[in-house]
Structures are given as structure tokens and as C-alpha cells.
Amino acid sequence: MLGQRFKRLTCCVLFALVAQFAMAQQGPGSLELSRTARTWEFLPVVGTRAGLFGNESGRFEAWAYPLKIFRDFHLTFHVDGRALPAESLARTVTVRPESATLIYVGDSFRVKETLLVPVHEAGAVIVLEIDTAQPLEIEAGFVGDFALEWPAAMGGTYAEWDATRRAVVFGEETRKFAAFVGSATAGDVHLAYETNYSSSNETSFRLGVTQKGRETKAIVIAASVAGREDAQKTYEHLASSYEQLQRDSAEYYRNYLARTVNLELPDNSLQQAYDWARISLIQGLVTNPYLGTGLVAGYRTSGVSQRPGFAWFFGRDSLWTSFALNAAGDYSTTRTALEFISKYQREDGKIPHEIAQGANFVAWFKDYPYAYASADATPLFIIAMKDYAMQSGDVEFAREKWDRVWKAYQFLRSTYDARGFAQNAGVGHGWVEGGPLLPVRGEFYQSGLGVEALRSLASLAGLLGKDDLKKEVAAEFERQKPALDEAFWLPATKSYAFALNQNNQRVDEPSVLSTVPMWFGLPDAGHAEEMITRLADADQETDWGMRIISSHSKVYDGSGYHFGAVWPLFTGWASVGEYRYHRELPAYSNLRANALMANEGSLGHFTEVLSGDYYQGFSTSSPHQIWSAAMVISPILRGLFGLQTDVEKHEITLAPHVPPDWTSFGIRNVHVGQVSVDFQYRKTRDSVTVEATRSGAGDCWVEISPGFSLRTKVVSVEMNGRPLPFKIQVNDEDQHVAMRFPVRSGANSVVIRVQNDFGLTLANELPALGSTSRGLRMISNSWNPARDQLRIEVSGVPGMNYELGVWNPEQIRSVDGGVLTKQGKLRIDIPEDKGTEYAHQTVVIHFGKE
């Protein structure tokens, strides 16, 4: 007995070491993520036409849009006279863009289950690699749930066994819809049945006995909306070609990453998050055989219903996601999304909010209240069209869609209140769809989008040569921009109102939604900074992102979908808005809060919504939410790097606020027209070097303006060893050294030489699942006029101590409210205070003479 235990222990240790070695071999930036299986976590594998949705226990449901095929798929291992449920043996999960693998381990066997959904096929394959020391047979069971996606229905359905193809066949009386589930080795079939005396809703088949050693078996799933013969054709194709299809799918994602903007970051966690966020974005692209190809909102299991999370088409989700797609250089997917959404524009110009995948089977746009429920999709459409046209240079598409853009503007104008702001009352919801924050006349969020739509419309008119219209709309924008700030600013509380109520009074409810107008640079700079200071405190910012409202609010509820929860969407808005107004410390904290979720929850993906009180996703959240992934990409590219392209000007803008301790990074494959530019950034104690290398034909200008602390002195700027003209752009938070130059063939190396460069860094981490916030909040910082004193306001947990990184710490003479450690870190000790969860502290850093 002792010897058997020793052998089992040795096997377990060896298996663990092999797993650790395999993970170590992945290297930096690897797209393969592995961990011990968490049986409750969502595990999706998707293509453009099908998806498997389940969890890390190995239970799944299968879809081939718009058809649901089955639910509650699971394996049972028959060995040594026992029937072992696979979920009890799930040990390791590994995800890749094209597939996911679960490893099940018993006393005498190991089964590697790989779930594959080929990118362009209406089906999936489950590959089982068996390694056993004694006879083993695998049984696959599932509950047939052959149905159309909500809200459609197909009537009576049936299931039968096709002995020739060794597959369960699902069908219905009109013979339009069919699905196959089977295997070349399937047998011992038990179909679901119901009689007067007994019933079973489970269908199962066994895959034949593996006597000993290694063997591979495959379960194939295929469906069609064009009848049984078409489904059979797909089934046979998948069965015979799944290995090649897996290679093709992996290549599809590799090519996608190669043709979009690539980053080389010093932080491997951010690197993985950025790469997986790009994968998650493109996995939102879905082809419905009746409706077309567009972006869905996200994925979750449907269970006994016919609605898999948010796996149908949403207007505003697509439009917010398009900003990330454009930033990453994926203009083709943005164009596809805009084409799809505009196709279903209402006659009066309103842009759709959501389009169910079963919409063609019902009077969706007439009888259901969801199609045009939102007000914000319409201004977002105008803004997104401008962003796409400006960055891609696809002016012809903008010209083709101009009539739709103009109709959207006309509808937007019809929603104006007396002061010319887009409102919600009688129009549709803005961000908030329900709960105690309503009713309101118009949200700051919605009114801000309406004002930004004016600027975007003017830009589009200019691109299309409509100069008179450009002038007219631009003048309207210039009038409305300051009026917006005045209408929503609350001087007494130094914050923006969440909304105007039905009596046109400001609703004093500080909300992260105010960072949406900040994203577009609409608020007054001073007001925006005061609002950011308010939002950066612990009542608004958690370790895992931004609450919609303060936890001190009378209507706050951490479980409130629209009145307390944390959305990565909000967190991304806040990060981009904070970077826009040079508040890089809270901006970076929010960026990391989103990015680090790539290794949490659904591996490689980003959840829709989390509790406002505890680090835990909502039970109803879609764990693979597309715009949550977008809110990793936009804060990195548009926020952290300040990256923007303008094909009309043949210009790339780079205005980075990089953490002071980042000594290098790379940005590759930035396109402006036919030109592609790579950037390499290097930093030393007294210099910053930016190299730009181009390929392709055409003009290309680059405007670079890296940020430095207000204490830093710029000594010189040179390009290829010669002086380069530059400007110093100073604001209350930092200064930027701005220069513009043409990128020519050969070397384009800019060197900025500085003195007294200084900076602080805070690399926040996510807490343990289920925990409350424990991290430090960087509320504000300010320099004195002489730049020899920096005052920092922080908030932390009483009794805890925190450390900040310091760039060039030898400049510090003394610290009040903190300690400069021998390792050159700034340690802040928060005094004990039993009366509060978070306490404020002021830290003053004194610098020596130059």
C-alpha cells in the first residue's frame, strides 16, 4: 500500500513539474494560457459561425448560429467497473485563440480533451487524446436542445440515430434545420425518450474501448439552416479535416495579430493582456446566415434558455469597440461592423441598439421594444464613422454612408432640449437603463456624445468637400462645448452632475460616466482635473475598476447593475479620460485593473460586470464581453501611448505617458495610408530616444510629444545628431516635449536630453477572488512653483503600508508622511483608524538643490 501511494505521489509530482516546465517554455507574450482548472469558470471556444460555451469542468453547450444544438455536454470515463464523471477529474485548462484543452487525470489514465471551433465552419470538434494503462471507454452525454436563438422558435423537433454516419441527427418537420453530433467510433447509443412510465432527457453514446496505451478519438458537431444534406456535408468535412482546420484557425489568429498594431512591452502581464484583448475583439465577429456579419456583444452559457449571454448584435457595443479596432489598425472589422449596424438604421435615422440572431424570424423591428431602445447609439454612430474615416483614409466609404450619417444627425437634432443638448427623456436610455438613478431628462454622458457628434460631423463634411456644412456644424460645436460644461458643472461640490432631471436641475451624483466627455476632451481642463480627483478616491475606484457611482451614495448598491457595479467598460473610459487630462497615475491603475483580468475569470477574456463590493464577477455577467476587451486596447493605445493616425494629414501622433520606470518599449506596424511605421523607445536617467522606421510608399509625418514631470528640464532635442525644433507644452500635471518631422527612409532617431527627470510608479495588482479593495489610491499630486516640492494625496487601508517606485530617487532630500527606503522606494504607512475602511494621507516630497 505504501509503495502504491509513493508511486502515485511520484507521478503527481512529475506531472506538476512537467506542467510547470511547459508553462515556462511559453515565454514572454505567449498566447497559450494555462492554470489549474476552476470548475466554475466560463470556458468559451468560438468561431464566426459557431461556438461552444461551458465551464472548466468540461460541461458545454453547442451553437451554430442561429441554432442551439445541445446543452449539458459531459464525459464519463468507464474503467475498472466504475463510471467516473469527467468533471471530478478536471485538473488543468489551457486556452489558445483557436481552441481550449482540458486535462482529466485518473489513477491509471489521462485524457486530453481539446475543443475546436474552426473559424469559418458551422460546427465544432472535440478531440480526445487518451493515454491509459488499462481498458478505458469514454461516454459522451448531452441534453438535446435543438432550437433557434431567442426570440425565434421552430416548432416540433426530433432526434434519431444515423447508423451509417454514427451520429445523432436533429431535425424538424419543415426540414430547413438540421444538426449532427457523432463520432467515427460511436456506438451503444441511448436516445432521450419519454413514455407514460419513464423518461430520460439525456442522449449518450460510447466511443469504443481503448485497451491500453494511446488513442485519439473525435466527436464532431455540425449544423445547417439549409437542410440535412448540407449539415451532413459539414459534418463529414469536419470529421475528415479537423486537424488541418485547427492549423488554419491558429494561422488565422497569428495573421490577425501580425497585421494589427504590435507592442513590445516591459510588463509581460500587460503584453499578454493586449494580445489576448485583440483576439477577444475579433472573436466578436459573427456571421448569421440571415442577417449578415457584424459584432456581437459577448458570450455566456444559455442553460435552459435560448439566449447565450449577449451573443447577438448590439449597436453601441459595436461602436465603442470600433475605437479599439481602429486604434489597433483593424479597419476592415470596423467597416464590417458599421456596414451591419447602418443596414438596420430606422427610417427616421435612429441607430439600432440590439438585433437578436433570430430577428429575421419575427417582427423584431416592429413588435419588440429592444431594437431601438438606446439613445446613445445614434451619436456614437456619427463619432465612429468619423474615427474610422480619419484613421483608415476610407473616404469613399464615408461618402457612401453620408446619407445615413446625415439621417442620424437629423434624428439627433430632433432629440435636443431647449439648450440644444441631446436628451434621453422620450428618446431612449443613455447609459443607465433602469434603477434609482432614473428618471432623468438627459445624462451628461448622452449630452456629451451629442456635442462630440457635432465635431465628428464637421470633420466628415470636411473630408467630403462639404465646406459650408463643415463651417456651420463646427460653429455649432464651438457654441455647445462650453455650454455643456456650464450646464453640468456643480461648483459647490467641484464635480459634474450625472444628469439633468426632468426639471432641468443638476443631479448631484458623481459618476464615472463623466469620463466619457473627458475621453473626447470636452470638459474644461480645471473642472476635469477636479472631477478626476473625486473619482480617484476609494469610494469610486476599487482594486478591480471603477464603480458607476460612489459607494457613499444613498442609492449605491454593490450588486446594482446600473447603480453600484464595476464595469471594465467604465474603467476603460476612466483610463482614457484620465490620460487625456494628464492624470497618469490613476489612469495606469485603471488600465492595469482591466488588463490583469486576462489571467483571471475566463482565461484570455474580459468579463462584462463585477460586484462593486467584492472582487467577483456578477453571476449574470457575460464572462467574454467584447467591449471589455476593447477597454484594454483603447487605454493602452489611445491613453498610455496617445497613438492616433490621420490619413488626410499623412500623420501619426504619439503622446506617451509611460510609467517612469519603463526603460524601453516598441510599437510596430502603425499604418497611415500605405506607409507602416515602427517605433522604438529607450530611456536612461538623462535621455529619451525614439526611433521611427518606415516601410511603404507615400508621405508620412510623425508628431511625438512624450510626457515628463514638471521638475524635468529639457536640455536639447536632436534628430540624427542635428538640432530638431521643439515646443514645451505645459499643463498643471506634467509637460510634453513636442516635435514634428517627416519619417524618411533610413534612420529617424530623436534624442531628448534632460536633467532632473523624476517620476513615481505604482504597479497595482488584483486582489484574491472575493476580497475587498486593499490597494493604494493616488488621488492627486501638485508641484510648488519652484518645482522643489511635490505634494501627493493618497488613500489607503488603515494599518497597511505601501511602496511606490521612484525614478531618480537621489534627487529627494526628505519626505513628510512617508519614507524613502534604502532601496530607493517611497514607503507610505497609513495610520490605524478603526472608524474607516480607507483613510487619506498627505505626502510631501522635498527635493535638493540642482
Main sheet summary? 9 strands, antiparallel
Distance between the termini: 75 Å
Strand content: 25-35%
Give the helix/strand class: alpha+beta
Your description of this structure?
The chain is α+β, with helices and mostly antiparallel strands and about 850 residues long. Helix content is about 25%, strand content about 30%. It contains 16 helices and 53 strands. The strands form 13 sheets. It has a nine-stranded antiparallel beta sheet with strand order 1-7-8-9-10-19-14-13-12, with helices on one face. Strands 2, 3, 4, 5, 6, 11, 15 and 18 form an eight-stranded antiparallel beta sheet that branches. Strands 20-36-37-38-45-41-42 form a seven-stranded antiparallel beta sheet. The chain is globular, with a radius of gyration of 28 Å. The protein starts with a helix and ends with a strand. About 50% of the residues are buried. Residues about 1-30 have low confidence and may be disordered.
How are the secondary structure elements laid out?
Layout: H1 2-24, E1 33-36, E2 42-46, E3 50-55, E4 60-64, E5 67-79, E6 82-85, E7 90-96, E8 99-105, E9 109-116, E10 123-132, E11 136-148, E12 157-162, E13 167-172, E14 178-182, E15 187-190, E16 193-194, E17 199-200, E18 202-210, E19 213-224, H2 228-259, E20 262-264, H3 268-282, E21 285-288, E22 292-295, E23 298-299, E24 313-314, H4 315-327, H5 331-343, E25 354-355, H6 364-367, H7 377-392, H8 395-400, H9 402-414, E26 442-443, H10 444-463, H11 467-488, E27 489-490, E28 495-496, E29 499-500, E30 506-507, H12 515-519, H13 525-535, E31 541-542, E32 545-546, H14 568-580, H15 584-595, E33 624-625, H16 626-640, E34 644-646, E35 651-654, E36 664-672, E37 675-684, E38 687-695, E39 701-704, E40 707-708, E41 713-719, E42 722-723, E43 727-730, E44 735-742, E45 749-755, E46 759-761, E47 777-783, E48 789-796, E49 801-807, E50 812-816, E51 819-820, E52 826-829, E53 839-847
Parallel strand pairs: 35-39
Antiparallel strand pairs: 1-7, 2-3, 3-4, 4-5, 5-6, 5-11, 7-8, 8-9, 9-10, 10-19, 11-18, 12-13, 13-14, 14-19, 15-18, 16-17, 20-36, 21-22, 23-33, 24-25, 26-29, 27-28, 29-30, 31-32, 34-35, 36-37, 37-38, 38-45, 39-44, 40-44, 41-42, 41-45, 43-44, 46-49, 47-48, 48-53, 49-52, 50-53, 51-52
Helix pairs in contact: 3-16, 4-5, 4-7, 4-16, 5-7, 7-9, 7-10, 9-10, 10-11, 14-15, 14-16, 15-16
